[in-house]
Predict the structure.
Amino acid sequence: MEDIILKDIYHYEEEPDINDTLVRWFNETINKKPLEMTIGDLARSVRQNLFHEVVLERGIEELEKDPFAGELFTGELLEKILLLDKDMLLTKKAELKKILKKAEETHNFHCWGFPEEKDEYLELLKKLKKTINSK
């Protein structure tokens, strides 16, 4: 699946209105391989309700490297991953546990922009823990 572009995985066609920012993003993204998706692409895909299986796989890979990953704010990728279907998330329970452990061990050393940012991130970790322990 790593050598196939999203257009072929999901059988999407390019949209004709290239003057629209979202359409341009969609057209560019469906022509990417999963490994070419940026953190911003992954987050936007969840917001647009697209590519969930690929987002989960790639999101896990990115969060394993950096549990604070985000384009717009710290923890954005984790926040978006947690919006995916719970049953789908639970197929990656072992990986999510590792991400949670790494985040819990390192959040006190992270350079937070402001105190509320850390509080919001800790709420995400609570939500992740609850998801992991739900079944």
